[in-house]
Amino acid sequence: MPASTFAAPSAAPSCEVYIFDSLPDLNREIISFVDSKMKKKVGRGECWDLAAEALKATNAKWNGKLQFGRKLEKEEAILPGDIIQFEGVKIKYEKGSVRYTQVLKHHTGIVYEMKGANQFDMANQNTAEHGRKVTLTFIDLEQMVSGKVYIYRPER
Fold first, then answer.
1. pLDDT tens digits, one per residue of 42-57
2. What CATH number is associated with residue 44?
3. pTM of the model
């Protein structure tokens, strides 16, 4: 498994909470793009379209497929504006006495706001809950029980 591939459950990446002003310029631009598209359909409304259009709008370089920039090493901090790709991921958690399961079979999103170590709001679209409009979904990688996550740092 490459160093930049994160697998469940114990290999989730570490992160710190970052203030918007301390982000790399390109990550900040991607977050600004997401803000301008919130509650709107981007492209065809597919999850991939949000990341692709954000990278295109900010003149980021990428391979036009699923490599959205430079793959993070597992010890690198996750930042708002990073692109995240889920493959066969299942996340289980409880709220009160209710148990929930998030299933992200093949899904792309943009890290929007860090909430804690390995916890963040993710901007995404094409979800069962919100349809083909850009919304936020809370993700807690500490609760990931299966699958792989690939995180990319956008670059020019």
1. 999 999 999 999 999 9
2. 3.90.1720
3. 0.86
